[in-house]
Design goal:
Metallo-beta-lactamase, Chain A, six-stranded mixed beta sheet, Metallo-B-lactamas, MBL fold metallo-hydrolase, metal-binding
């Protein structure tokens, strides 16, 4: 089961990925509105074991510590390349907005190819640096959570510290465009797309 909602002033998409049988769930990229996200999972009757982050920018991590408190025993995972962003307002870009967000350190340092069990389902970590040094996507049997790596008709910005257009394009072409065309793509901003649509229509991948 996948559900997504845009959260906060920057409209970053937060997703719930859940196993229908066990009601175990993961929250992906809770960027804001922690209480609203908490109500969402409670209404669904879900037990959240993990908060997983595609990268460490403020619009994707802003509600992490609030949800730690609301959910209790939950583990937060991020790739090692972005782990330092959680505890540094300059690195996570919140200081540029006058917030200076400093969070607790991650519990899990995610690795390329790692699989995370969610009840009877799995999420596979795909490292796609470029938007940030530790940017990742998560692949499930229902689709790809692409964070700020791949959007409908576009790709992520690479002008932030640690960004690299060459790295991002290599990751997208070598790791994402090899997926089946009918793979659904759930991006960090904007509407759902598919691998086939992006192969055909994305001007950055021509």
């Amino acid at each position: 089961m996948i559900e997504g909602r845009a959260m906060g002033a920057m409209g970053a998409n937060c997703y719930i990925f859940a196993c229908p049988e066990s009601k175990k769930a993961v929250i992906i990229d809770p960027g804001a509105e922690g209480k609203r996200i908490h109500r969402w999972v409670v209404e669904k009757g879900l037990t959240v074991d993990y908060i997983l982050l595609t990268h460490g920018h403020v619009d994707h991590i802003g509600a992490v510590d609030e949800l730690r408190v609301l959910l209790g025993n939950v583990l937060v995972g991020i790739h090692a390349g972005d782990a330092g962003m959680l505890t540094d307002g300059m690195k996570n870009l919140s200081s540029l907005m006058g917030r200076g967000l400093v969070l607790q350190s991650a519990d899990l340092l995610l690795q390329d190819g790692q699989e995370i069990a969610v009840g009877n389902e799995k999420l596979k970590v795909i490292a796609t640096p470029g938007h940030s040094p530790g940017c990742v996507c998560f692949l499930s049997n229902e689709g790809l959570f692409s964070g700020d790596t791949l959007f409908a008709g576009s790709i992520g910005r690479t002008d932030f510290p640690g960004g690299s257009l060459d790295q991002l394009l290599k990751g997208v072409k070598d790791k994402l465009m090899i997926l089946p065309d009918d793979t659904r793509v759930f991006p960090g901003h904007g509407e759902e797309t598919s691998i086939g649509e992006e192969k055909r229509d994305n001007p950055y991948l021509a």
